Amino acid sequence: MDYSKLDKVRQTTTPLQLDVVESFARGRLSRREFIQRGAIVGLSMGAIGAVIAACGGSTASAAPGTAAPGSAAPGKTGGTIRVAAQKPSGPLDPILMQDLGSYGTTALSFEFLCTSDATEPLVTLAPGLATKWTPDATGAVWTFDLRQGVKWQDGTDFTSADVVATMERLVESGNSGLKGILEPGGAVAADANTVTFNLARANGNFPYLVSTFNAQTLITPVDYPTTTTLDGKPNGTGAWKLVNYNAQTGATFERNDAWWGGATPLDAVELIYFDATGPMVTAYQGGQVDYIIQFDVLSGASLLNDPNFTSVALKAALHRQIWMRTDTGQFTDKRVRQALALTFNRPELIQQLFQGKADIGNDHVIAPVYPYFDSSIPQREQDIEMAKQLLADANATGLTATLHCGQILEIPDLATLLKSQASQAGITLNVEVESLNTFYGAQWCPAEPKDPPCSGAAELGIVDYGHRATPDVYLNSALSTKGVWNSSQYSSDAFDEAFKEFQTAVGVDAQKAACNKIETVLLDDTAISVPYFYNFLTGYSNKFTGAYSSGLGQIFLGSASQV
Amino acid sequence: MARFIGRRLLLALVTLWLLATIVFVIANVLPNDIGRTILGPFAPQESVDALNEKLGTNRPILVQYVDSMIGIVTLDYGDSYVTGRPVLPQLFEAIGRSAKLAGLALLITIPLAIVAGLFAARRRDKPADRAIVLLGVTSSSIPEFVTGTILVVVIGVHFGLLPVLATPPADSDILTQIRYLLMPATAMAIVYFGYIARMTRAGTIDVLQSDYARTATMKGLTTSQMMRHHVLRNALIPTVAVIAVQIGYLFGGIIAVEKIFNYNGMGQTMLFAAQQKDIPMLTAGAIVIGIVYMLATLASDMTIAWMNPRIRLDAER
Predict the structure, then answer these.
(1) Cβ contact (<8 Å) for A275 and B272?
(2) How far, in Å, CA of B286 to CA of A135, rounded?
(3) What confidence tens digit (pLDDT) does each residue in B160-213 have?
(4) Do A287 and B38 touch (CB under 8 A)?
């Protein structure tokens, strides 16, 4: 340990940053966790590198992206990359867009304050339009230093007024990530290059809410009112200028020569829109696309073994929740819920459904990819005898129930496997696979009755959840009392308290302590079962290098080039 | 003939009005908050209400219906809920793409199938006839998506002879466009070959057995003279009717083929509109497909009337 180096960093940090530095120095954070947490609380790249070096680690590739998102990619200049992307299902309005296709298209021209780091794009932040962000001691006031010399594609200067105007539009539109955290007037321009966010309450994860992980927070110009679309009024600070757009077929972008990150090696980007993964895979195999933003093991199995294709499996929080109604029906006794969860052979599920490309789940939503995941909580494993005993204790031997699920990706196969595994404990599950509209509208969270939300849900079902850089949405919407997606109608004071503690926690120890409580309560109550967290799969032809994606449809090609 | 066309056009207008009404009823009978669908589950209710007000989806259903009918007559189909742009230009793009695909598929199918049908009829019950009948039954029994997938895997991926996506690059020349469309068009042609060939064969056999065909043979006409002057015109009447229906069907969009080849014709456009509850696009799309059906049927009726004057006279009576 080089204390002189460490002290130099200590002297320049805020209390929150100091907490992260100390946690790493004392071994409570791994190097990876330190980089993630350090980026969140705004430690500079130099400071992160210096702390790692002071603690005896290598600084090689330690710090998240610096000058421009993405690592420098030695390669040829020129050429076009053809990207297989999901088709947008709405207008390219940066404020109101709701789908991955729109996220990916708009993020080629517009940029975030904080972007995804090239090395760990699903969880770690890197500087975007903000070069530095610093919280106060309470975590309720965050100051963002903006990148200077940035220009909009129409030639005007990017300033703090653009950031403030964007935030006002987001608050006004009810942005789900910022709701309850940022209120009207909460973002203030301290000067042309600094914005201060006065939050409604402390939030240790605030930079995530103005990053790729809150996809609508792309910074747009002052005169870019809500409902303005990228294709209607092309602009941006990003590396790519929209040349043409067809909502049905695709979009073409050309290099933005005035980009702050310098000249991109590639000349152009061609997005080709698809409705499903299968045609994306055949398009790659037929040599008509170079990059697939996201694919799944089922339809993209051939890509995983293709020597000409670089497939990237990133640990993620993507998961399925098997909900069990806690307020009515056959699963009100938690012993019955635990019994069903005990029949699941999780390693077998992971192997059969994902060829091993997933992390095991422990019936809570704190994924192993999160820095505050507590691995000390015992893992629930298949135990048929225990399941039978619990069912007998609850007078539920010979339980028969209908397991509802939608026709999407691996879920019908998961339902079939669960049925088979549950039968070992004498549980009969009748699998009902339905169209997505029917499933979401009639089984998962019917619109009626409205209060409490989802109180018309089926007693048992499987629902899909996408990746989030923090678990707030899962905890708030699916599990907190009267949560908007709470199909199990779970209501627990202990959980609600732990969640509140997590949200307001700003230090590493406090967040870990809150997560320990959350994991413990959820595992015991088993309102939901989470058998796995599967990897985010993306990939590209070996002819290209330097490209990466965020897990939310965005793709970063500023440093991409042909090999 | 003018009276005949006039009557058919009048009938077509009534059918279109019925079609528009049915689409409107189906689209509105489902409980659905359009503003909420567009803005998503997290948007505040005020924004949802404001959007519904702007779109006019909060007005009484009868008012909406009358507006919708006026819009159809005045060719104002409104803006897409999804893209926020007028629906007609988008639909014309899609129908244009479908027309290219359907046109190429028909161009491949019709001559081949008619020649095969005539050839088989002339050699009734001989090995060549049985082979063509068997080929026709087999090809029309295999769904387009199976043929399409096999073509993609073998021709596109394994041999790399043709592109696996059907959408050609912007501004490509006609030959490039044909190259991109050849595989999906072939997948469709394989299916329709069977229908048309069998129909042609059956019609030709029927005519060849007729008294006037026999008389023509007995008065010493050569086979080719008889085929040209007496058989073809009568034998192809049912074939023309089948082709007309197929044209409407092909323009309406073969969703499976369009999906396999990622081609955004009418099929994918309409499916996407239905999934997104894009009612203006759905309504306009149904009308446009209806018009194509009407025109194809009208053209077929006129062709049949030209080929067989008795039909024309019946209609005029």
Answers:
(1) yes
(2) 56
(3) 999 999 999 878 899 999 999 999 999 999 988 998 999 999 999 999 888 988
(4) no
Burial of B140: CB neighbours in 10 Å, binned 0-12, 13-18, 19+: middle
* Interval A269-286: pLDDT, tens: 999 998 888 889 999 999
List helix spans (H) across A26-79: 31-40, 45-54
Closest C-alpha to A168, from A220, A229, A206, A130: A220
Interface check for A243 against chain B (CB to CB < 8 A): the answer is no
- Structural contact between residues A88 and A99, judged by C-beta atoms closer than 8 angstroms: yes
pLDDT tens-digit map of B19-46: 888 888 887 776 567 776 666 554 556 6
Tell me the C-alpha distance between B88 and A465, whole Å.
Answer: 36
Tallying the residues shown for chain A, one arrives at 563
Mutate to test the interface with B, among A214, A275, A289, A437 (most CBs of B within 10 A): A275
CB nearest to A286's CB, from B44, B164, B268:
B164
- In the A/B pair of chains, how many CB contacts fall below 8 A? 84
Residue with tokens 């210096």: A50
pLDDT surpassing 50 at residue A67: no
Contact A446/A454 with Cβ under 8 angstroms?
Answer: yes
Q: Touching check for B168 and chain A: CB below 8 Å?
A: no
Beta-carbon separation of A288 and B163 below 8 A:
yes
CA distance A394 to A338: 11
Beta bridge partner(s), residue A142: A135, A197
- Predicted pLDDT at A402: 97
The dihedral through the CA atoms of A476, A478, A480, A481 has a sign that is: positive
* DSSP result, A288-314: S-SEEEEE-HHHHHHHHT-TTEEEEEE
Is B155:B183 a contact under the CB 8 Å cutoff? yes
Can you state the angle between helices B266-275 and B237-252, rounded to 10 degrees?
50
Q: Quote the tokens at residue A113.
A: 């304050």
What's the CA angle centered on B94, arms A101 and B114, to 5 degrees?
Answer: 135
Q: What is the mean pLDDT of chain B?
A: 85
- Residue with more model confidence, A11 or B17: B17
* Residue A434 near residue A404 (C-beta atoms within 8 A): yes
What is the model's pTM?
0.79
Q: Tell me whether B315 touches chain A (CB under 8 Å).
A: no
Residue type at B182 in one-letter notation: L
| Residue A507 pLDDT exceeds 90 | no
Class of residue B167 by CB neighbours under 10 A (exposed 0-12, middle 13-18, buried 19+): buried
> CA-to-CA distance for B44 and A448, rounded, in angstroms?
18
pLDDT exceeds cutoff 90 at B275: no
Across the interface, whether the CB atoms of A173 and B165 are under 8 A apart is answered: no
Which is nearest to A279 in space by CA: A468, A86, A104, A411? A86
Pairing of strands A291-295, A532-541: antiparallel
Please, what is the end-to-end C-alpha distance for chain B in angstroms? 11
Residue listed under structure tokens 């339905």: A434
Please tell me the predicted confidence (pLDDT) of residue B44.
57
- Segment A536-540 shows an average pLDDT of 92
Within A415-471, strands assigned E span 428-434, 460-465
Residue B315's pLDDT is 54
Alpha-carbon span A469 to A461, nearest angstrom: 25
Local confidence band at A71 (pLDDT 50, 70, 90 cut-offs): very low
Report residue B308's pLDDT band, with 50, 70 and 90 as the boundaries: confident
What is d(CA A174, CA B72) in angstroms, rounded to the nearest whole number?
A: 36
**What's the N-to-C CA distance of chain A in angstroms?**
40
What SS3 state is found at A493? helix
Strand-strand pairing, A141-146 and A532-541: unpaired
Beta-carbon separation of B260 and A484 below 8 A: no
Tokens representing residue A1 in the block: 């340990």
